[in-house]
Design goal:
The chain has 21 helices and 13 strands. The protein has 597 residues and is an alpha+beta fold. The strands form four sheets. Strands 1, 4, 5, 6, 7 and 8 form a six-stranded mixed sheet that branches. Strands 11-12-13 form a three-stranded antiparallel sheet, with no helix packed on it. Helix 8 (160-178) runs antiparallel to helix 12. The radius of gyration is 30 Å and the shape is flat. The N and C termini lie far apart (63 Å).
Length: 597
């Protein structure tokens, strides 16, 4: 790579663009990016992942632009490379002459691989946000909202039996391609072809559990036999470096135990779910596919998937104050009749340029599917702080919040969190009857808890749960046993109730938050968070819920470039004078609001 400034648009291309888009005809996205932003990416940003010797390659900053446009227009690599050669607006953006031959589509795959391996996927989003912040289109201390969605991996979902067989098959394929003569001397090719010649998902496993268990052990024996052959001193050492070999080793360790009994017999058993001992490892460590070792099984409400999770944060500020009319801020949300969201535009607001203000994505984070939303709250704030774009108020759903997080965020980041806390998960609260946790009175000074029947707890034991200080209050069996309403309180075999008590500061914050959630003002303010669902839908239409590549680094890169593409599409509407309709709703909902007003 040889860093260089972007060439100015070719005069012939610029003349053709000017002729095609005169007057009020809106210019295409690529032209708007060049005219409005100029050069906002530099080759030096990517220098660390490119060499300094050899034949000069294509400018990485311009390849990044091609990748962004590719995501904006949902193009394949081949179609994107053709667009660089054939589309005038792309040539205008990239500063290419009419006769430029472009590049082979494989260059885009190489570029993504280099950037993902170097961890530079955030560079494009960072530089765009810097340019927009300098132009006043985005700022810190405003209002932002966050939501997450599932992302399915670009591999087939496998059960444990299929995983074991497919892992062996992947090693056989790799060895057959790398050293076929070595492999044919160590296996019966005909038998292994019969068992591993086709993918595990292309045929049905045996119906009986006994035969499936026997097949699982057979897969394990074949796998251990291959590993022993690969690691034998007489085998070429470089065979051990094949990625499929290491994946098979890890899959066998995670799913099987292998011991030598007292009579010298080898015993292989499948691991089962168990809290300790020889049970399966935790979900965040367990490989789920030999072809994507970063993908994990995740669950969110009624959705169960193999892959990743995407977190998106965007601005959601009020419309800026309008100089041409006395109304501003939240008052502008009301129409001329005083009703909210009726859809009619007051005469004094029509044509006000300040109202065409886009909501912009400020952060994207991609994790494996086992990471919970509340683990990401501090991470997201840290990433926003690194960009100097921390919000003053952050709207999130209950998955991101807890009493500890709500208390810590203002002190650590200066961010006020708005969102409902998770409801009481006790059996009584879930059933909707009986004595839930809120029915008990806690006295922190005397370290006692009083039940609705007037009984006092017998003990108060400080403890730590999920890294947070807490206490467990336990009532005595003598007090709970003869209680006439014990069935409404506990089903414990020990005939006593136990409660986990939060520290005083967290308990008070939790109570205050839950009280506020019941007010009309809170519900009206929190309704702002629902707008992020539109962004998630916009991302989903561009394939965000299905990974385009294998592995977390490339998936993270793809999501970041997708976020840049969505920002530019919104900026295109802003530059072309199409305002963001903050009161957009359905006709039926509009009628209901009008009648309510």
């Amino acid at each position: 790579m040889q860093p260089a400034a972007w060439p100015e648009p070719d005069p012939l291309v610029a003349s053709a663009i000017a002729a095609k888009y005169r007057g009020k005809r809106p210019r295409p996205l690529a032209v708007q990016i060049r005219d409005q932003l100029g050069q906002w990416l530099d080759d030096e940003e990517f220098a660390s992942v490119f060499g300094i010797r050899g034949r000069p390659g294509w400018s990485p900053s311009r390849l990044a632009l091609v990748t962004v446009l590719q995501r904006a227009e949902k193009l394949t690599d081949r179609a994107a490379a053709d667009a660089v050669r054939n589309h005038l607006d792309w040539q205008y953006l990239l500063g290419l002459p009419l006769d430029d031959p472009g590049f082979d589509d494989s260059v885009l795959a190489e570029f993504r691989a280099k950037v993902a391996e170097g961890g530079l996927e955030q560079v494009v989003l960072d530089r765009l946000l810097e340019r927009l912040a300098a132009g006043g289109l985005i700022k810190a201390a405003g209002k932002q909202r966050t939501d997450s969605t599932h992302v399915e991996a670009a591999v087939a979902s496998l059960n444990r039996l299929e995983l074991a067989g497919e892992s062996v098959r992947a090693v056989l394929e790799a060895l057959a391609a790398a050293q076929p003569h070595w492999l044919e001397q160590r296996i019966c090719v005909q038998d292994f072809t019969r068992r591993y010649g086709t993918p595990m998902t292309s045929w049905r496993p045996p119906q009986s559990q006994k035969k499936r268990d026997e097949l699982a052990i057979a897969y394990a024996r074949d796998g251990y036999g291959l590993l022993e052959a690969v690691y034998h001193p007489s085998s070429p050492p470089w065979l051990r470096e094949l990625p499929a070999v290491d994946v098979l080793r890890r899959v066998l360790v995670q799913n099987y135990t292998r011991v030598i009994s007292a009579d010298g017999t080898e015993v292989i058993k499948r691991r089962e779910k168990a809290p300790e001992g020889d049970g399966l490892p935790p979900g965040h460590l367990r490989i789920a596919s030999p072809y994507d070792t970063d993908a994990r099984w995740g669950v969110k409400r009624d959705t169960f998937w193999l892959g990743y999770k995407l977190h998106v944060t965007e601005t959601c500020d009020d419309a800026p104050a309008c100089d041409c009319c006395p109304q501003s801020g939240s008052e502008q949300e009301q129409d001329a009749d005083g009703g909210r969201g009726s859809g009619r535009e007051p005469e004094h607001r029509k044509g006000c340029a300040k109202l065409v203000f886009p909501n912009l994505i400020t952060n994207v984070a991609t994790t494996d599917a086992t990471i919970t939303d509340n683990q990401m709250t501090d991470v997201i704030h840290g990433q926003l702080a690194a960009r100097n774009l921390l919000p003053g108020q952050h709207y999130e759903d209950s998955g991101y919040l807890s009493a500890a997080i709500v208390v810590a965020a203002p002190a650590t980041w200066g961010v006020a969190l708005t969102g409902p806390l998770l409801a009481d998960t006790s059996a009584q609260a879930r059933a909707g009857k009986g004595y839930a946790r809120a029915a008990f009175t806690v006295d922190y000074d005397t370290e006692t808890v009083t039940c609705p029947q007037g009984k006092t707890s017998a003990s108060w034991s400080p403890c730590t749960q999920r890294g947070q200080a807490a206490a467990v209050a336990t009532f005595s069996s003598a007090g709970c046993g003869p209680c006439p309403v014990r069935n409404l309180c506990t089903t414990s075999s020990k005939n006593r109730r136990q409660l986990t008590i939060l520290p005083r500061e967290l308990a008070e914050a939790q109570q205050t938050a839950r009280t506020a959630e019941t007010t009309a003002g809170y519900r009206a303010d929190y309704a702002r968070r629902a707008g992020v669902e539109g962004t998630m839908n916009q991302a989903a239409t561009r394939g965000a819920r299905r990974a385009r590549y294998r592995g977390l680094p490339k998936t993270r890169l793809d999501h970041t470039f997708m976020a840049v593409a969505l920002n530019l599409l919104r900026l295109e509407a802003y530059w072309n004078g199409h305002p963001l309709d903050r009161r957009r709703t359905t006709h039926l909902a509009r009628l209901e609001l009008h009648l309510a007003a």
